[in-house]
Every structure is written in structure tokens, then in C-alpha cells.
Amino acid sequence: MCRRTTVALTLAASLVGMPSALAQSADLRFGNPTRFMPQSGEALYAAVCQGCHMPAGVGAVGAGAYPALTNNPRLAVAGHALAMVVKGRKGMPPLGSLLNDQQVAAVVNYVRTHFGNDFRDEVTATDAQALR
Amino acid sequence: MSERDDTTMRRRDLLALVGTAAGGAAMYRAMSSLGLAAESTYTGPIRLDGDAKGASVLILGAGLAGMVAAYELRKAGYRVQVLEYNNRAGGRCWSLRGGDTYTELGGATQRCEFDSGLYFNPGPWRIPYHHHGVLDYCRQFNVALEPFIQVNYNAWLHSQRAFDGKPQRYRQVQADFNGHVAELLAKATSQRKLDAAVTLEDQEILLTALRNWGALDENYAYKTNLVASRRRGYDKDPGGGLAGPPIPSKPLALSDLLRSRMWQSLIVGSNYQFQTTLFQPVGGMDMIARAFTRQVSDLIRFNAKVTAIRQDAGGVTVVYEDTGDPGKPLRATADWCLCTIPLPILSQIEINVGASMQNAIDAVPYAPAVKIGLQFKRRFWEQDDGIYGGISYTDLPIRMIGYPCTGYGDTGKAVLLGAYEIFGTYAYEFTSLSPAERVAKAVEDGSSIHPQYGREFENGISVAWHRNPSVLGCEGNWTDEMRKQHYENLCAIDGRILLAGEHASYWGGWQEGAILSSLDAIGRLHRRVLAG
Fold first, then answer.
1. Distance CA B519, CA B40 (A)
2. How confident is the model at residue A13 (pLDDT cuts 50, 70, 90)?
3. pTM for the predicted model, two decimal places
4. Could you tell me the CATH number of the domain that includes residue A15?
């Protein structure tokens, strides 16, 4: 756990020092087989969440469905979104073991303030940790 | 389906401890509770003797679990109907061929461009010799099988950060790893460091065994010589006439091997579910689905999307709609319902079962699994690299390359499995790409192992199982804790409803699990019906 955090912090620090163009082009997707490496909510959404919730958060419908995140009133309760990301339920797999607390908070905050959602009460890494 | 070995190792350690502390009987009980002791419980064709008195069963899902039940229940005198979401039967027992199209969730449609006769199995692709249920139905329905090659000693093991990124032959990594470990153990034995654990008499035998196992020389050393080369291969192979004498090859260094982590891939084929002999149906895994479909197609209503499952004292009513004519609820009724709908979907369908079954339905997440099939102009892996079937492993996101275990020596085009990751981050990250990006990534990664990819690649197709409209995932991803809490509740009969599928088995992700779970369910259902 400590070692992983150190790696993530080192990586984040090295990105800060990079020229901005390079930092933007650095795709952290496929960086580690057991931990997601993107750090920002936007990058995590693109690398992970959009696999099911789709690039614009529109969801999808087949024999079952992935809920749209656009204008989704369920996101009003931050704890619900946090719990879904960390523990999963029904079609949603638990992602808690693949993300650290900062990443969980970042992606929840991103989804709750994009796709037509405007929930400004930010969650923190501490909130994410409390769910583990 | 899992090739994940971390849990296996943990379980094995635990079992070793249990065995040491409490003896064999306790270990067997522990193994049973972990679901490891029993091999397939298939004991021959199911016998549903006794009068079903015209009872009716509505089966939801025409995958292997649903079709096994339909076939056996009709034979036993039940009135049977099957509802299936797709326009084909078979579920995850599925093959893609040239001309097929596949539309994933999100709407991206891929058209398979493979040449005639070539295929790719997006779901299951191998059948262990001990999966007696699958094998027996293949025998009953005349599905021709051929060997599936799991371990190929000439395939590649590849690590980005080891050996300058150059792939190494499986044969050499295995021989060198075993050889070095045998040498170390022999040293420890000779230095009397094992006296507390092994009697002196046994130590002599152990030394002989280590020499034999590790290809050690007369001084118990593993090094560059003809003894080791008989395992790892030669710099120059034995020949004829004046070119006869072989030249031995030099082992890789122990430290390099340990740090390469390539040893992780050596044990896959030693796991029970991947041990020789494995099989595949000739012509594609869906030959099994087709064989079942020939038996029960008249019972199946295709393009039926289930929206509600309701039971009362009188029977079961299932509400569904035709996917080609949505919004118009249709109804099917029966005395009993066998539901094989995958849990991510079933958890979203209105169903009046008890809280314990509902909790079980809601609890089990499905693995993301991604598979990518790639067509190449020629079999360069055979022609250039001497690899006939089997699997190369890499730590790149594609994780493996599976070579066709059929048509060896063919000079035309061929399709290989260009990526297969089941559980980890890479499977999610592949899923988040567009189909074209997935294929491009598979080609890019594979080029590190086979530089021929760039010149020889023609086309590819990918299946990211979380985006599969009729499953929403690859397989139920149970943990031991989840099983303890929910497994029995998932499998129990709830009023007039019971569930089946790989998710209701201890062979998760395997076709054998679907078949055994279905046979177990209809056996219990039949006893219930006879008891009236």
C-alpha cells in the first residue's frame, strides 16, 4: 500500500515538472496491470468508466443497461457514487482495489460536475477511504 | 477461464497449512469448501425418471445452460419453451467468422473480415479433459474435437524490462529456472542444511531426483553443457554426418530470470484446468452451440428481451418484448422458470424472489475480459519461429498471443488470438477504446514479440465483454467470501424459480460450469415436481 502510494506520488510529481504539452500527451492508460495509473477524474473516466457508461456519459441499453450519467439525479448523493465506484453493485464492478483514495475522489468529483451534473459538494480521499 | 494464479497460490498455502496441522480429512473438508477437491461432478447422462405429469418449464436464455435444460427436460416429458435475447443460440459459446457483424453496447458495429474458414472464439476456447459434461454432450451430438495446445515449449515469454525486451523461449526459461533451483537445493542438501527436514537416506534420493529434474551435471551444477541443452535446446542442434555434433547453449542467469518474472507464466499449464490434454471443437467453439441448437431450436423464441419475472402460487409469468418491435409487452407462462440470464442483467429485471436470492443476484460482479482476433497474411509464427499452436505470454497489455491449434503448415492466411486479458486494469482500458483502437493496440503490442506483425497484419476484431449486450461481462467474478455469503442462496429454488449458468457453479467462466449447474438445477426441480 505504502509503496503504491509512493509510486503514484512520484509519478504525479514528475508530471508537474514536465513541459505542459508533454504532460498532456502522456497517456497513462496501460501503465500498470493491477492499478489504474491516470490520476485526474477526466483521464480516469476516459480510461475506465467510458468502457460501459460511454464517452459522453450517455450509458447504453441491451438486454440490460448501463445507466446514463448525464443529468443523473442519483449522483446528488455523493456517498452513493463513492460506494458504487469502490464496492460496485449489480452490473457495476467494484473498482476499489484498482484505484487509490485520491483517484476515487477525483473520478467521483468529475462525474458529479460533468455531463450536465452540477453537484458542487466535493468528496475527498478521506471520504473514499471511509468506505473501504 | 481464469489464468490468475495469485489466489491459487494463496489457497494452496492455506491448504498446506491445514494439511500439516489437522491431517488429510480436514484438508479434504477445507478443499471442498473452497470448491477445489471435486473435479467435474458429471457422472453420465442425467436420468429424470418418473412422470413429470405434463409440467411446464420456461427457460430464460439459450446459452449452454439453457439448452442443456431444454434438451433434457423435453426428453423427460416436460413442456418446454425458451426465450433468448439474441438472434442466435449459444450465448458465450460463440465464434466469429468472415462476414459476421457484431454490434457492441454504444453502437459500434464491427464486420469480421476474416477469410473463409478462419474463425476466432471470443468466449471459451478450450475444454479440459476432465470436463466430462461438455465432452459427453460433444460425444452424444457428434461434435468433432481436436487437441488444444496450452503449453508450447517453443512459444515466447516476453517481459518489457527483462533481457532488453527480447522474448525468450518458454523451453529455455523453464529449463533454466528448474535447473538453477535444483542446483540451489542440491547445494543446501550437500551442505547439510536440510537435515532437520529430510532423513539422510532420503537426501541421497533427493540429490538424484534434483539432478534428474534440473538437468544437473555429475557435480550437481546447472551450466552450459549437453545435459542442460537436452532440456533448453542447443546453439546448434544435433545433425547428421559431419555436421552431426551439437553445440550446447548457455543458460540464462538466475538473477535475470527471477527479476524477469517470466516464471509466473511457467505454471499455467500445470494448473488442473489447463493440463494436457485440452480440446477444441474442429471449426470453432460454436460447433457445440450449433449441435445443441439442432436439438432444441424449435423450442426457442429469439429476439426476446425479458423485462419482468413474476411468480405466484399458480405459476410463473415472464414479460418480454420482441427486440425488433419494442414497447409491446408479451407474456409467457409456465409452472416453473429456469433462469440462466447473466447476473448483471438479471439484477436489473423485476423479479419477485426472496431477499436472499435477490441479494445474491445483486452481489456478483462480472469480469471485464477482452479478446482480440487478428488475421495475418501468413503463419509467420510457424514459418519463421517454429511455433505450432500454444500460447506466448507477455507483460504487455495484450497479455498473451494464442496461435491457431489447427491447420498447421497451411500456406494461406490465418487468425490468431492477439490479446486476452480477463480481470485486470488492462481489460477495462481496452474496453474503453474504440474497436479500431483496440485492434491497433493489439498489433502494436504484438510487434514487440513478432516484428512480422507490421508487414503481415490484415484485419482484426475485438470483443470487450463488458460491452456485450447480452451478458454485460465475461463471467461471474466470485470471491471466497462472496461464495460463503451468497452461493447457496443463488442456487436454491425460490418458489417456482431457480437459476443456472456458469455463475451458479464452481467452474466459473467455463462451459462445464454452465452444464453442471443446469443439470443440478433440473435434477432438483424434477424431484420437486415428482414430490408434487
1. 12
2. very low
3. 0.90
4. 1.10.760.10
Asked if the C-beta of A54 comes within 8 angstroms of chain B's C-beta atoms, the answer is yes
Q: Is B353's Cβ below 8 Å from some Cβ in A? A: no
Which pLDDT does position B40 carry in this prediction?
A: 65
Each residue's pLDDT tens digit, B427-463: 999 999 999 999 999 999 999 999 999 999 999 999 9
Average pLDDT over residues B228-238: 98
Pairwise CA distance, residues B483 & B118, whole Å: 39
Domain residues for the domain of A65 are 2-130
Closest B-chain CA to A50: B432
Do residues A18 and A88 make contact, with C-beta atoms less than 8 angstroms apart? no
- Please tell me if residue B467 touches chain A, with a CB cutoff of 8 Å: yes
Q: How many helices (H) and strands (E) does chain B have?
A: 18, 25
Rounded Cα distance between B121 and B284, Å, is 7
* Letter string b/e over residues B183-218, b meaning 16 or more CB atoms within 10 A of that residue's CB: bebbeebeeeebeeeeeeeebeebbeebbeebbbee
Q: Is the pLDDT of residue B18 over 50?
A: no
Instruction: State how many domains chain A has.
Output: 1
Distance from CA of B344 to the nearest CA of A (A): 4
Count CB neighbours of B386 within 10 A: 11
Q: Cα–Cα distances in Å, from A60 out to A66, A70, A81, B476?
A: 5, 12, 18, 21
- Residues of chain B with C-beta less than 8 angstroms from the C-beta of A83: none
Which residues, listed in sequence order, are joined to residue B412 by a DSSP beta bridge?
A: none
pLDDT of B474 over the 70 cut = yes
Q: What is the pLDDT of residues B324-379, one digit of tens each?
A: 999 999 999 999 999 999 999 999 999 999 999 999 999 999 999 999 999 999 99
A with B: how many residue pairs have Cβ under 8 Å apart? 100
A52/B85 Cβ within 8 A:
no
Domains (ranges, CATH) in chain B? 1-37 (no CATH), 56-90+287-364+479-531 (3.50.50.60), 96-154+276-284+367-467 (3.90.660.10), 170-260 (1.20.1440.240)
Are residues A104 and A68 in contact, defined by beta-carbon separation less than 8 angstroms? no
Q: Determine, for residues B429 and A48 on separate chains, whether the beta-carbon distance falls below 8 Å.
A: yes
